Amino acid sequence: MHYRRFGKTNISMPVFSCGGMRYQQQWTDLPFDEVDPKGQQNLEATIHRALEVGINHIETARGYGSSEMQLGHVLPHLNRDDLIVQTKVGITENSADFLEQFNTSMGYLKLDHVDLLGIHGINTHKKLDYVLAKGGQLDIARQLQKEGRVKHVGFSTHATSDVICRAIEQGDFDYVNLHWYYIYQHNYIAIEAATKRDMGVFIISPNDKGGMLYNPSEKLSALTAPLSPMVFNGLYCLNDPRVHTLSLGASKPSDFDEHLKTVDLLDDAQSHITPILKRLSDAFIQSHSDTWANNWHLGLPSLADTPGNINMLVILFLYNVAKAYDMTTYAKMRYNLFDEGGDWFLGDKPKSIEHLRSLDFTACLKNSPHKDIIPGILEETFRMLDGDKVIRLSQT
Q: How far is Cα of residue 355 from the mean position of the Cα atoms in its chain?
């Protein structure tokens, strides 16, 4: 395993973290005596396998159902000094709920402290305001830090980069969990901002939100060969020293195996990814055009300025990867999460072609070099991707 200094925390962080949202029994709390013994054995085996390969960062959240409770029957029996434990607690308007939820987390985990506490889901400016208010979640987290129950305080986010950068530039956080990977690079500005603040950088869901890379299209697999898409994406992310760790949401012990190939290649990552990057770029241009490939995202409006609350940036991103890399299954999954994802997946999709045609994008696209063709692309994307509604994993 490789390790990196996790920003100002000075924690020696493994480049992969064991995320705790896929091996738990269910997405709601339940008594331990209702846990399937085979499921608990699988969770314990997964944790022991993580430690065996040097992944000593165990990451979970209050919002991950029975994850904390099930971990609480494993972690106290391990050498605490060898573990980096992170949990996350969500944001509510009543900040007192944050302390109550944290206490619930600690009761389930059966630990006297966590190394990392994440304020979970700073997804909007409004939520950031709650966190930063006097007596808000940040003040409570810092008090827990003074009491020795928390070592370092950070935040997780599914927000747009303007919200993330605003949170980072407050200078109050030690680390950030955010989305950034090969197919979606729009949050790089936030990574740069975090680096200037010497913050730890944790990449959320590089294999699922990063393209359902455990079930890649044949075209994507051919383009990244001889590496699997997961190994390529891991190398791509970790080739940047400003990225410290990638979440690996293991559901069973064998889920670590493919990722260990990334570790083996990390010392010479650039030589492995350079030819693949060229093939991916060529495929994108062949599917679209030079002009579109270089500046499709320029001049796009914010959600607040877009009629119908249409998330134009993400819809066009999904159009791009579906066309260029045959990632239609992934793109459909994400596209049909609109309207159901709340502030974890902001914005809406068109309700119909007729609805789309009723929206006047003239003003909001005035700064786009592609203002004349984007409405047609939005229609094409609707026809290609629209389908049955998808709900977030935590709602299952």
A: 31
**Low-confidence spans in the chain with pLDDT less than 70:** 341, 389-396
Amino acid identity of residue 190, one-letter, is: A
In one-letter notation, the amino acid at residue 12 is S
Is there a domain that residue 377 lies in?
Answer: yes
Residues 346 and 199 in one domain: no
| Residue recorded with tokens 């579109």 | 292
304 in the same domain as 166: no
Tell me the whole-structure pTM to 2 decimals: 0.93
Please give the tally of structural domains in the chain.
2
Cis peptide before 31 (omega within 30 of 0): no
Phi, psi of 164 (to 5 degrees): -60, -45
Task: Tell me the residue type at 91.
Answer: I
Q: Please indicate, yes or no, whether residues 292 and 261 belong to a single structural domain of this protein.
A: no
The answer to the question of residue 275 being in a domain is no
Q: CA torsion 214→215→217→219, rounded to 10°?
A: 40
Residues 211 and 314 in one domain: no
Residues 106 and 224 in one domain: yes
Q: How far apart are CA 1 and CA 295, in angstroms?
A: 38
Query: How confident is the model over 253-311, as pLDDT tens digits?
Result: 999 999 999 999 999 999 999 999 999 999 999 999 888 998 999 999 998 899 999 99
Question: Which residue range(s) make up the domain with 44?
Answer: 3-268
Alpha-carbon distance 141 to 114, whole Å? 12
Instruction: Return the pLDDT at 341.
Output: 67
What sign for the dihedral angle of Cα 91, 96, 102, 108?
Answer: negative
Q: Which residues pair with 85 in a beta bridge?
A: 58
User: Distance of CA 73 to CAs 13, 15, 81, 82, 270, Å?
Assistant: 24, 26, 17, 17, 41
For residue 333, being part of any structural domain is answered with yes
Q: Would you say 189 and 159 are in contact if contact means Cβ atoms under 8 Å apart?
A: no
Nearest to 256 by CA among 17, 5, 2, 4: 17
- Mark whether 347 and 303 lie in a shared domain: yes
CA-CA distance, 114 to 148, in Å (whole number)?
A: 9
* 25, 65 contact by CB (below 8 A): yes
134: left (phi over 0), alpha (psi -120 to 50) or beta: beta
224 and 263 housed in the same domain: yes
CB 317, CB 374: distance < 8 Å: no
